[in-house]
């Protein structure tokens, strides 16, 4: 395995070259590399047979919105004048500062795929905007990377992401609370209200794009409620399983719920988790929760 840092910063204009680390051995990095990216690459390397070299390029900035990473062409796809929706970007909207500085210099590198972990900085807007902008960004990255490598990067290279686990402390439903923003005719239930739940919904919808995969990490929160959970190994491992299945044709076992019985409180709830394993297609673990409280909204 070899690792590469793109050390460039934001730029108002596209950069053809960037400051970088050059390719380095993991032993030369000293723990400074993206943990999720490292665990993803490590699990790929360990799982591939016969072994092949794995190169990882880290280009990231924490706490940034996807419009920083989108070209002007991608941004234009979600403008109000194009989509005729009030939640779109204003018609004169520009950004692309990290696209210019931290993606454009890499477009001549042939890649097999990309993994992504982001979302909190887009969570304060109507979720339909991210539903548009995230998909537009992925499609635009693919087109420009293929063009930049003279067709040597697959036009629909694999793109995977890890959903964020949490942000701040848990909130509780308040009866008759007023939603913000107020649901309208196109969103009567407020499913696209601002917050990480609409970011996750948009990411789920993005799986409709070809050659995409997703790692759900809601079960890896940190007690403080911080957006950055320290548990990066599960995120990397789950992304690796997605890539192994999608890109390398290696089937991966995954858990799925085969039965969930829910009654009105007070209740006895039985949840059965079924693992789709080759040895036993449905090994069932039963968990009884004698004092469940479910609220139907």
Which blocks of ≥5 consecutive residues have pLDDT under 50?
Answer: 172-181, 259-264, 270-297
Distance between the termini: 49 Å
Order of helices and strands: EHHEHHHEHEHEHEEE
Strand content: 15-25%
User: Which class do the helix and strand fractions yield?
Assistant: alpha/beta
Basic shape: globular
Order of strands across the widest beta sheet? 3-4-5
Overview of the structural elements:
It is a single chain. By secondary structure, this protein is α/β, with parallel strands linked by helices. It is built from eight helices and eight strands. The protein has a three-stranded parallel sheet with strand order 3-4-5, with helices on both faces. Strands 6-7-8 form a three-stranded antiparallel sheet, with no helix packed on it. A two-stranded parallel ribbon has the order 1-2. Strand 7 (267-275) and strand 8 (283-292) form a beta hairpin. Helix 2 (35-47) packs across helix 8 and helix 6 (127-148) crosses helix 7. The protein is globular and about 55 Å long.
